[in-house]
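Observation: inputs received (chain + NAP).
Thought: call the complex predictor directly.
Action: predict_structure
Action Input:
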Amino acid sequence: MKTINIVLFGVGNVGSSLINQILESRSKIFNSSQIDIKLAVIVNSKIAFYNKDDINNSWEADFKSYGYPYKLSQIINHVKKEKLTNLIAVDATASEKFVKNYKELIRNGFNIVAANKTANSLSDKFYKDLRLELKKHDKQFLYETNVGAGLPVIKTVQDLHLAGEEITKIRGIFSGSLSYIFNSFSSNNRTFSEVLDEARNKGLTEPDPRIDLSGKDVGRKLLILAREINIIKELTEVKIENLVPNHLNGKSSISHFNENQQELNLNFEERRSNLKADEVLRHIGELGVASGQLEVKLVTEKRNSPFGSLQEADASFEIYTKNYGNRPIVIQGAGAGARVTSRGVLSDLLKISEKLECI
Ligand SMILES: NC(=O)c1ccc[n+]([C@@H]2O[C@H](COP(=O)([O-])OP(=O)(O)OC[C@H]3O[C@@H](n4cnc5c(N)ncnc54)[C@H](OP(=O)(O)O)[C@@H]3O)[C@@H](O)[C@H]2O)c1
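Observation:
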């Protein structure tokens, strides 16, 4: 039997869903793999809840009632004092500040699973230093949900690359929220602003939808895939079409954007009116290996093409390689959502567990 001890950083949509899925699946996992998953500490940006007993369905109330302000060093001291082993830190934050703690966590015995894309999309120096630290301390870092949420995109790219298969191009609808927005906008006559509100009300966009519309999130995912196949780039080198006009961008407040988002309508309606009957708008990311170009843009696709016929908030990835020729490997399905993402995180946790000691 193996016990793994998790410290969960981030108890938002993904973190909460992960706790609930662990509660739902724990006995099944134990019966099939003899792995006992313990949630040792649960942390948000302000408080930490040290879980002495086994976590149960009242975790949310316990977290609020018994959580208290913390420093990272106190969490590290706690796991040492309790002699917890097989440690895995889960990063379910979106924080750039938090990833600066990874090295300290690794030095103190933690493996890492991240839904947060930041560590893999900061500078090339940070990316390489992190991997050196992992190697030095013989620790693992998995982040399958960084691209395509629960879809096995990173693993597929890694396996192809490891086997020496030459990847020539990756092209995809990387963002579930932008997929939903342009699938809806292209196939009816509603204004862009109405469609954006609908996507926001369904919880598909970030609370600030400019994070989606700016294309930066897709740019990050593209960079993460590029780095998997040894293309050395920085985020600033990704060519990104920003769909937010300058005067409504991140330098102005979110309420200013919300009050004025109708100003986006004119541009998008013009683009829609230029479409032929068999065409739709799609938001894509494209990585050309030969050109070394990474590009995020809004394009016109044939309605009956693979991307043109996507539904709802589906993501779709086409991986072109030398041996697969012009018939790419296609990975498609729900590309966003807390439940599919947390299932991907849980799967990463179990993969790491396979290599940990039986205790
Ligand atoms: N939702 C998806 O479909 C999806 C798919 C793939 C990847 N992801 C990634 O998953 C991550 C989590 O997404 P989410 O939707 O769950 O976000 P969220 O609802 O905003 O939750 C973020 C959580 O992180 C906590 N946090 C922020 N800074 C922290 C810090 N320095 N230390 C500890 N905790 C901190 C927040 O605490 P407070 O409440 O105290 O601020 C909150 O509990 C993001 O990186 C996102 O990009 C999401």
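Thought: report the result.
Final Answer: Residues 13-33 form the longest helix (21 residues). The pocket of NAP is lined by residues 9-15, 43-46, 92-95, 97-98, 115-117, 145, 149, 336-338, 341 (CB under 6 Å).
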